[in-house]
Design brief:
The complex is a heterotrimer. Chain A has helices at about 5-10, 10-30, 30-55, 65-80, 90-110, 115-135, 175-200, 205-215, 215-220, 225-250, 260-275, 280-310, 315-335, 340-350; strands spanning about 80, 85, 160, 160-165, 170, 175. Chain A is mostly helical. The longest helix of chain A has 30 residues, at about 280-310. The two termini of chain A are about 25 Å apart. The relative contact order of chain A is 0.16. In chain B, helix 3 packs across helix 8. In chain B, strand 2 (about 135-140) and strand 3 form a beta hairpin. Chain B has a single domain, classed as ABC transporter involved in vitamin B12 uptake, BtuC (Orthogonal Bundle). By secondary structure, chain B is mainly α. Chain B has helices at about 1-30, 40-60, 65-90, 100-120, 145-170, 170-180, 180-185, 190-220, 225-240, 245-270, 280-295, and strands at about 125, 135-140, 140-145, 220. The radius of gyration of chain B is 19 Å and the shape is globular. The longest helix of chain B has about 30 residues, at about 1-30. Chain C is an alpha/beta fold. Chain C has three domains: about 40-160 and about 300-360, Rossmann fold (3-Layer(aba) Sandwich); about 165-290, Rossmann fold; about 400-470. Chain C contains 16 helices and 15 strands. Chain C has a seven-stranded mixed sheet, with helices on both faces. In chain C, strand 10, helix 11 (about 275-280) and strand 11 form a beta-alpha-beta unit. Chain C is elongated, with a radius of gyration of 28 Å. Classes of the chains: A mainly alpha, B mainly alpha, C alpha/beta. The interface between A and C is large, with 44 and 43 residues.
Chain lengths: ~350, ~300, ~475
């Protein structure tokens, strides 16, 4: 089952490309809403891959990843909305959002360099909450974020006159707003995947893996652990920032309630359930966890109604329950994730048996 | 000046609650180096069980004191069973796994317990039955109530009892040995599994007591009440030096007082730039600062590679 | 291994081919069988509220309100454009989550609903309103009270309930009436609580009340002693809380424990039986407000209550009457426009004058309820006791003033535009003349005139902007 080779072969690439191009049109047959769900799935793939750099490659457990997403989202919201009367173009805002998130990553990373494992997790969790609390409260004395009211009327993504909201005709095809975002997101996701793959197989990637496995040994062989850990935080954060920007543009409205702790845990769960450090696994995890609630909503709810005649368990609470149980069970029986990387699987089997 | 005294009292009571919860964290962490994220949920379940048991007994016409005691007993028993089950089902199989694995399991357990509690007790806020007579006192312009005094006393007594247990009994000695080096301890004839299970069970019982205290104090309960409480209590444990029982107690009280004074005075100190909206930030800032400059906590002994 | 993959690849390709075929063929059957004469006109009304999650009970209540209205409309049998109309409810669940809100809004747009009732929460209503506005679908919310919803300037956004601005103002007026001189304001840092507290602050300060403390908490907190102690030191006569009952109840209780004598006042978030349950005896004699009038005081109120409880065997939770009215307003607009097409009946929604269960419903230029009334209640003996209704009149006055400004500005623009047009025609006429020089000169003059006209338009536009901003 060498998927890696398959994806790299010409036929594999062509087939994947055909699949990715056809997907939004297939989904659109069930309504544009499904395209929108796809959009969110890819947005989460994007986020999960960003977090994968921090957690999967460098082994730094980050429970505050949503903070970077929030920074990116607010950067876009503030620079492209009537709030400050600014309407900057995408090529200016997206890099600014990424840079701000990157800065936030370094700011978070530098004091926590000494910490490892569970302490780091708790501190990053605290950091995520601090960012949310600040976003929620920076409406006085100077109104920066508009506080809990959030920011409305955020500009959609646009390249010149080509806007991503509303339907446009291209080569005789009618492309809806969500479909356009789909292609943008896929393009970005492919970029992140390429960066992830490149990183994984680079000197930096191997150094991260060394830090993940044994920090002291890594230091001993001359790896600059401090800089590399900061780099992991910064890179992961930048991806979060870009994803946040797109989210902001897609939704047209941001408020701090979208960036709560549970979102951080959700993204972490995607990485962990799919397979830490293994790109296809992470993608699987992200898609599974985004589609699962939809399945529960349209599957389990009506099923209960049909069988019992009433709703016994609310799909929303069932979702969280299934999600929590999945975390526990996967850690117990498949600690490397549902689709682990071959090396990692081997390692765990060796140590396990 | 009466405000200052009042804020100290507010902080002391809040801090005693943090301390009681922090003891549970610190016991488990001290012995097996695991942050039991689900401990806050154990506290929550303790509160909700008391509401059900005491509430229905009072409704059945039993005297409040008896019903309250029965509720407390029920909560302690349920939480002990829960703590034991948590350890047995979720954590024991992972004892030799990489450190991140049990932490993620703990987060998962916390979500599972919250949602189970929600299915059992519903989503609404519940009122906790009044178990203690309402008595108000006034001292130098500061107001306090009977329950506040009891909370401070109970948490001090619990810590005292726990110290006795750890330093004066055989089980305590086994616990300390396991904390030092589990492999060696087991060679010396200590049943590691039993010691760790005992730590979970005792920690959970303390959590139940804390839950009942929280319930009696605020007379309100909710399936999500445990998470933030747990987080703050963990901060308190880290502040005092995790693994150190007296440290957890002092750390809790210190954190409570920092929060109360912070909320009370931050506006005046920063000329109105920051206000009590940042109350929840103090705990995290304290946590980060302590971990940066003194990872072993204020009262913890220097341990090499714990953080 | 290789063979296996090929099989997989083939089957995937086959799946695509199939789905592609499906896609191509689909439009045909839809286009073909359109009957010549429609015996019945189906009108689809979307309804969105959280049916899962912590607010599911409120969502169900809203949906019941809509179901009741639609059944009544169908029973009555309405005719539009000569065809009998059958209303259909397309109910969706947004789980009170903004992301989900946008997804289900997209679903309703896909389903080509004629109008949308909802959503319940402001947090989901605001992002969804953009989708409806883009699609030109009228939206009436019965419960989203955040002022931003209608301030976005969408022609499709309406609400049949007083917004937070209106409520905050009325609460401020009430505080003045009580003779309060100093007040402490607490809010829970949610969009609702903060918005309400801000409006209350403005109203209180405008009428000379001194705000002696501004404190904050969260919507998850249980301990308020630290901030209350600070409030105690300011000796405020009234504590205003912008937030929900789960915090308000314990807050009232802790005020009493700290020996604070000040009165407690809150908005609709604390105007619930839950508040009294959680706050115990400390809530006795405190005040709160609810938008609109109590059902018992309304002409059609008791009748609605009877119908509702009989049909669903459940008590009205909160917003059902408003949602009921929202559906009725939508149907009324269709009737007046004699069309069920969104584009055609949308202007009629703005001109609504409908005598509903909850109020005489009329919209202002933004789509807000005109003169939304606010009622004050007092907690007495474990019950909410109606005190008085405030707001309606004064709000009307303020809004009328703003409207006059806008109208004036619009008139200016129109005049300016006329001048421009006149100048332009003048230019045209002169140009017809033979004398080139004259024409040239005239063009110059015309240019100046156009310039002047443009300037007039510009200043008029500025005036409009200013007037709008004032609002």
């Amino acid at each position: 089952m060498n998927f890696g080779r398959f994806f790299r072969s010409t036929a594999g690439i062509a087939l994947t490309a055909a699949f990715l191009i056809a997907l939004p049109f297939v989904a659109a047959m069930g309504g544009q809403a499904w395209v929108r769900i796809l959009d969110f799935a890819i947005l989460y793939v994007f986020l999960a891959l960003g977090l994968n750099i921090v957690v999967g490659l460098a082994g730094l457990l980050d429970l505050g990843y949503i903070a970077f997403y929030a920074v990116g989202a607010y950067a876009w919201a503030l620079l492209a909305s009537p709030h400050f009367g600014l309407h900057w173009p995408i090529w200016a805002i997206l890099p600014i959002g990424a840079a701000l998130a990157c800065l936030a990553g370094v700011v978070l990373g530098s004091p926590t360099l000494k910490l490892r494992g569970d302490y780091l997790a708790i501190v990053t969790l605290g950091f995520g909450e601090i960012v949310r609390i600040f976003l929620n409260n920076l409406n006085s004395p100077i109104n920066v974020t508009n506080g809990p009211q959030g920011i409305t009327l955020i500009d959609p993504v646009s390249f010149g006159a080509f806007k991503f909201s509303g339907t446009t005709q291209i080569f005789g095809f009618a492309l809806s707003g969500p479909q356009k975002y789909y292609f943008l997101l896929v393009a970005l996701a492919i970029l992140v995947i390429i960066i992830n793959v490149r990183l994984q197989n680079s000197r930096i990637g191997r150094a991260w893996q060394a830090i993940r496995e044994d920090e002291i040994a890594a230091k001993a062989i001359g790896i600059n652990t401090r800089n590399l850990k900061l780099l992991a935080f910064a890179m992961g954060a930048s991806f979060g920032g870009v994803a946040g920007g797109i989210f902001s543009a897609m939704q047209g409205f941001v408020s701090p309630e979208s960036f709560s702790l549970i979102e951080s845990i959700m993204i972490l769960a995607m990485v962990v359930l799919g397979g830490m450090g293994h790109i296809p696994g992470v993608i699987l995890g992200a898609v599974l966890l985004t589609v699962l609630p939809e399945v529960l909503r349209y599957g389990v709810g009506p099923l209960q109604m049909a069988v019992f005649g009433k709703m016994l368990v609310d799909p929303e609470s069932l979702r969280m329950l299934v999600f929590g149980l999945a975390l526990v069970l996967v850690m117990r029986f498949k600690p490397a994730g549902l689709w682990p990387s071959p090396e990692r699987k081997r390692e765990l089997q060796e140590t396990g048996k | 000046m009466d405000i200052f005294l009042q804020q100290i009292i507010n902080g002391l009571v809040q801090g005693s609650i943090y301390a009681l919860v922090a003891l549970g964290y610190t016991m488990v962490y001290g012995i097996m180096g695991l942050i039991n994220f689900a401990h806050g949920e154990v506290v929550m379940i303790g509160t909700l069980v008391t509401i059900t048991v005491a509430g229905s007994l009072i409704k059945a016409g039993m005297p409040v004191a008896v019903a309250g005691l029965a509720g407390l007993m029920a909560a302690v028993l349920v939480c002990m069973a829960l703590g034991w089950a948590l350890e047995r089902v979720a954590y024991r199989p992972l004892r030799n796994a990489p450190r991140l694995t049990p932490l993620i399991t703990a987060i998962g357990m916390s979500i599972v317990l919250q949602n189970l509690a929600m299915m059992i007790w519903g989503r609404n806020y519940m009122t906790f039955p009044s178990l203690l007579p309402k008595m108000d006192f006034e001292f130098a312009g500061a107001n306090f109530t009977l329950i506040q005094i009891i909370i401070v006393l109970v948490s001090a007594a619990t810590m005292g009892g726990l110290l006795l247990l750890v330093y004066r009994t055989k089980l305590g000695m086994a616990m300390r040995a396991t904390a030092q080096n589990p492999a060696v301890a087991s060679l010396m004839g200590v049943n590691i599994n039993r010691v760790i299970a005992a730590a979970f069970v005792i920690g959970s019982a303390l959590g139940a007591v804390a839950g009942v205290m929280v319930g009696t104090y605020y007379e309100i309960a909710h399936y999500q009440m445990g998470f933030m409480l747990g987080l703050k209590a963990f901060t308190a444990a880290v502040l005092g030096g995790i693994g150190n029982l007296a440290g957890a107690m002092l750390g809790g009280i210190l954190l409570g007082i920092i929060e109360a004074l912070g909320a009370g005075y931050i506006g005046d100190l920063t000329g109105g730039f920051l206000g009590s909206h940042y109350q929840d930030i103090f705990a995290f800032v304290v946590l980060i600062v302590v971990l940066m400059f003194k990872p072993s906590g204020l009262f913890g002994e220097k341990t090499g590679d714990r953080a | 291994m290789q063979a296996k993959l090929t099989v997989v690849a083939l089957s995937v390709a086959a799946a695509f081919a199939l789905s592609a075929c499906g896609q191509k063929e689909e439009p045909k059957p839809v286009a073909a069988p359109v009957p010549a004469a429609k015996p019945e006109l189906v009108v689809k009304l979307g309804h969105v509220a959280p049916m899962t999650g912590p607010q599911a009970h409120l969502g169900k209540d809203n949906e019941n309100g809509a179901v009741l209205a639609i059944e009544e409309l169908n029973a009555k049998g309405m005719e539009i454009g000569g065809a009998k109309v059958k209303f259909e409810l397309v109910a969706e669940d947004d789980a009170a989550d903004p992301k989900q809100g946008a997804i289900v809004a997209q679903k309703l747009v896909d389903a080509k609903v004629n109008g949308v009732i909802g959503h319940l929460n402001s947090g989901t209503t605001i992002p969804a309103s953009k989708l409806y506005a883009d699609a030109g679908i009228p939206q009436i919310s019965g419960s989203a009270t955040n002022p931003k919803y209608t301030q976005q300037g969408f022609a499709t956004a309406f609400r049949v309930m007083a917004n937070d601005v209106q409520q905050g103002k009325s609460l401020g007026e009430f505080a003045v009436k009580q003779g309060v001189k100093t007040v402490a304001i607490v809010d829970d840092r949610t969009a609702y609580g903060q918005g309400l507290a801000d409006e209350f602050r403005k109203a209180a300060e405008a009428s000379g009340i001194k705000v002696v403390a501004s404190e904050y908490t969260t919507d998850k907190a249980t301990d308020f002693k630290a901030i209350l102690t600070k409030i105690k030191s300011t000796k405020a006569e009234l504590v205003f809380f912008g937030g929900m009952d789960a915090q308000g109840g314990p807050m009232a209780k802790q005020m009493k424990e700290l020996g604070i004598k000040a009165k407690f006042l809150g908005g609709d978030g604390v105007c619930t039986p839950e508040f009294m349950k959680l706050g115990g005896p400390a809530t006795e004699g405190q005040f709160c407000s609810l938008p609109g009038m109590p059902l018992e005081k309304l002409a059609k109120g008791p009748e609605f209550k009877d119908k509702f409880t009989k049909k669903f065997n459940a008590e009205i939770q909160l917003y059902a009457p408003y949602v009921y009215d929202a559906v009725m307003v939508m149907a009324d607009a269709m009737k007046r426009a004699d069309s069920v097409e969104s584009a055609k009946f949308l202007p009629a929604v703005g001109k609504t004058k409908y005598d509903g269960v909850t109020a005489m419903i009329e919209f202002d230029a933004q789509g807000d309820l005109k003169g939304g009334a606010i009622s004050i209640y007092k907690y007495t003996g474990g019950k909410l006791e109606y005190v008085e209704t405030l707001g309606g009149g004064t709000m009307d006055a303020v809004k009328a003033e703003i409207k006059a400004d806008v109208k004036e500005a619009v008139a200016d623009v129109k005049d300016a535009a006329k001048a421009v047009a006149g100048a332009a025609t003048a230019v045209g006429k002169e140009a017809v003349g033979d004398v080139k020089d004259a024409a040239k000169a005239a063009t110059e003059a015309g240019k100046d005139a156009v310039k002047a006209g443009a300037e007039a338009v510009k200043s008029a536009a500025d005036a409009t902007k200013a007037a709008v901003e004032k609002k």
